């Protein structure tokens, strides 16, 4: 092979490598352009609504992302959101305090995540089975408590947890959930700050490097002195705390939580955001910044479907096809790069 041909093959291989590395950005831009076309143009308000509507699922997806980086999965996050949000409403109605409600949501969410992490990391049960079980448990507890707690604690709602509008802090919390700063939703800014924090943790701290090490090769990580059970327990606990923060954002935005529907299928949406964001489900590969673009992409897909007035019954089919295509790109990308790399060396 001539030097020119080898150079072209190597150049193509490098381009493919960059495309794979930042595929989450390209996917988002492509989806956003389709949304703009389907919507007949975009306003600033419509664009900011994407950020607002992505806040809860995006924050949950960050937790799902670090779990997936260790090679595990958490199917309980949707039910956990319903449970934590419901009980956070109860705490708010009891105390009338926003800081206490936020603290409770974070701690209770972390406790729910700790249960998952202990069973997966220490007891060494399969994450799929553990979180499938806790998915059922958390949803059931949320519904049971809503039926049996005194009416004043659940805001006198009918099978729904409602924040009491008679409390002085009600307007402040609801305003926080729906207010904007310079046109940007506060809940969206909160999600972005969480993303920035975890991008830093995963890319620039020893703890982040340990997460990647466990996901890349747990046995090798153990041999280097990393406590794999502890890391997995911590990761699930952090994911639970982020669900707690999401629950706080949820009640701030909606002033209520329905134990039957709140967070329904959110585990799938979070996984979708992670996959669209370029994080490998096998663990050890991907960038946390991609989860932000994945969450935004997933919300924009919803808006495209609405803008095109498609039948609601076909929506999940479209989302599923998009996920399969993205995963195919993830799987085929390294193989294509390797193929052109081999051609370049011949």
TrEMBL record:
Superkingdom to which the source organism belongs: Bacteria
Membrane topology (UniProt) = Multi-pass membrane protein
- InterPro entries, per database record: ABC_transp_permease
List, alphabetically, the GO terms of the cellular component aspect. Answer: plasma membrane
Bilayer-crossing regions: 21-38, 50-70, 127-145, 182-203, 234-253, 265-282, 289-308, 320-340
Task: Give a yes or no for keyword Transmembrane helix in this entry.
Answer: yes
Which compartment or compartments is the protein found in? Cell membrane
Which keywords belong to this entry? Cell membrane, Membrane, Transmembrane, Transmembrane helix
Q: Which GO molecular function entries does the Swiss-Prot or TrEMBL record give?
A: transmembrane transporter activity
Q: Which PANTHER family match?
A: ABC TRANSPORTER PERMEASE PROTEIN YPHD-RELATED-RELATED
Question: What's this protein's name?
Answer: ABC transporter permease
- Species annotation: Enorma massiliensis
């Amino acid at each position: 092979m001539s030097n020119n041909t080898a150079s072209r093959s190597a150049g193509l291989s490098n381009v493919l490598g960059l495309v794979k590395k930042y595929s989450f950005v390209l996917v988002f831009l492509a989806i956003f352009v389709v949304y703009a076309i389907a919507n007949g143009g975009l306003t600033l308000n419509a664009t900011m609504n994407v950020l607002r509507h992505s806040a809860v699922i995006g924050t949950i997806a960050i937790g799902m992302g670090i779990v997936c980086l260790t090679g595990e999965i958490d199917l309980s996050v949707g039910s956990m959101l319903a449970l934590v949000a419901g009980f956070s409403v109860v705490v708010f109605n009891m105390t009338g305090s926003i800081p206490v409600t936020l603290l409770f949501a974070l701690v209770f969410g972390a406790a729910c995540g700790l249960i998952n992490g202990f069973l997966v990391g220490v007891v060494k049960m399969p994450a799929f089975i553990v979180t499938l079980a806790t998915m059922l448990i958390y949803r059931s507890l949320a519904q049971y408590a809503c039926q049996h707690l005194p009416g004043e604690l659940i805001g006198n709602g009918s099978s729904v947890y409602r924040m009491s509008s008679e409390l002085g802090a009600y307007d402040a919390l609801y305003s926080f959930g729906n207010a904007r700063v310079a046109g940007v939703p506060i809940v969206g800014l909160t999600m972005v700050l969480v993303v920035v924090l975890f991008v830093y943790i995963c890319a620039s701290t020893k703890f982040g490097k340990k997460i990647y090490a466990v996901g890349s090769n747990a046995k090798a990580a153990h041999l280097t002195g990393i406590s794999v059970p502890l890391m997995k327990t911590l990761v699930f606990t952090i994911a639970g705390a982020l669900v707690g923060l999401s629950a706080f954002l949820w009640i701030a935005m909606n002033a209520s939580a329905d134990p039957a529907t709140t967070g329904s299928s959110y585990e799938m949406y979070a996984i979708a955001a992670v996959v669209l964001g370029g994080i490998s489900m096998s663990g050890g590969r991907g960038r946390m910044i991609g989860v932000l673009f994945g969450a935004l992409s997933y919300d924009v897909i919803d808006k495209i479907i609405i803008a095109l007035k498609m039948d609601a019954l076909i929506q999940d089919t479209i989302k599923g096809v998009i996920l399969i295509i993205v995963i195919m790109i993830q799987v085929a990308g390294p193989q294509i790069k390797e193929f052109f790399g081999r051609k370049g060396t011949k």
